[in-house]
């Protein structure tokens, strides 16, 4: 009986990720994986350099939300996006990956489905919808554009 329980525990621990994405940035290759949480555990995001690394890159972040998506908008930048569902919002998280490591560059909540586009100049833009912290629950939602500029996202709200 104990051996059966141990085998079941190993099978759960070795469960495949909810999503996996292989990313080439420069000459290095990275594995990005999203892990589902269980009844008593959080999910997680893992980013590891797997080939042609100048130095070891390992990034892990625990996430309490339900994974919805993992993708790159285009191959010309070093950004990886994840979307998650939690409570009554979507959560968008973006990570910049380079030879020095991984940096979270965006965490935004959205009441409606987020939008991912590129501007005419090729700039990455993430669209979210939100209500202000001080607004009453009946207040209308407003759009927010998060535009990638050099090494960070710039927020611009429109009524």
How many β-strands, per DSSP? 12
Major sheet description: 4 strands, antiparallel
Q: Distance between termini?
A: 62 Å
Radius of gyration: 18 Å
Report helical residue fraction.
Answer: under 10%
* Number of helices, where a helix is a run of at least 4 consecutive DSSP H or I residues: 1
- Determine the strand fraction and express it as a percent band: over 45%
Average pLDDT score: 88
Topology at a glance:
Blueprint: H1 2-13, E1 19-25, E2 28-35, E3 43-51, E4 58-63, E5 66-71, E6 79-86, E7 89-98, E8 101-110, E9 115-118, E10 124-130, E11 142-149, E12 152-158
Antiparallel strand pairs: 1-2, 2-3, 3-4, 5-6, 6-7, 7-8, 9-10, 10-11, 11-12
Quick synopsis:
The chain is built from one helix and twelve strands; from the N terminus they run αββββββββββββ. It has 159 residues and is mainly beta.
């Amino acid at each position: 009986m104990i051996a059966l329980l141990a085998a079941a525990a190993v099978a759960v621990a070795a469960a495949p990720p909810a999503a996996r994405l292989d990313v080439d940035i420069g000459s290095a290759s990275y594995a990005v994986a999203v892990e589902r949480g269980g009844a008593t555990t959080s999910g997680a995001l893992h980013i590891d350099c797997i080939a042609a690394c100048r130095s070891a890159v390992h990034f892990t972040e625990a996430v309490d939300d339900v994974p919805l998506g993992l993708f790159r908008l285009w191959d010309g930048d070093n950004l990886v996006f994840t979307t998650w569902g939690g409570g009554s919002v979507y959560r968008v998280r973006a990570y910049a990956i380079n030879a020095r490591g991984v940096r979270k560059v965006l965490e935004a909540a959205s009441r409606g489905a987020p939008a991912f586009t590129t501007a005419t100049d090729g700039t990455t833009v993430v669209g979210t919808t939100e209500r202000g912290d001080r607004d009453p629950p009946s207040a209308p939602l407003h759009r927010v554009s998060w535009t990638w500029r050099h090494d960070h996202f710039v927020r611009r709200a429109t009524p």
